[in-house]
């Protein structure tokens, strides 16, 4: 079974010519990376890192679990639509 390390959500603004996607990625160390990019584009240099030890995990304790929940929701929705 393939491991999911990236989940994307295309904006609900379907009437826009240029649309953005929310991208959530899980790093190999368990940290989360979140970016908003134009549809289909990469995230290099555009992502925010959310640490699961130190950093955000201590300064904003609920943030990493919320991102993890959003990631799982996107993956579950994608798997239902396959």
**Radius of gyration in whole Å, from Cα?**
13 Å
- The H/E string reads EEEEHH
Note the gap between the termini: 15 Å
Q: Order of strands side by side in the largest beta sheet? A: 1-2-3-4
- Number of helices, counting only DSSP H or I runs of 4 residues or more: 2
Largest sheet: 4 strands, antiparallel
Mean pLDDT level: 92
Q: Give the amount of beta strand, in percent.
A: 25-35%
Secondary structural class: alpha+beta
Instruction: State the helicity in percent bands.
Output: 25-40%
Q: Could you list the spans in which at least 5 consecutive residues all have pLDDT below 50? A: none
Got a strand count?
4
Tally of structural domains: 1
Shape: globular
Structure notes:
The chain has 82 residues and is an alpha+beta fold. It has one domain (6-81). 28% of the residues lie in helices and 27% in strands. The chain is built from 2 helices and 4 strands; from the N terminus they run E-E-E-E-H-H. The protein has helices at residues 56-59, 63-81; strands at residues 6-10, 20-26, 32-38, 48-50. Strands 1-2-3-4 form a 4-stranded antiparallel sheet, covered by helices on one side. Strand 2 (20-26) and strand 3 (32-38) form a beta hairpin. The longest helix is centred in the last third of the chain and has 19 residues, at 63-81. It is globular and about 40 Å long.
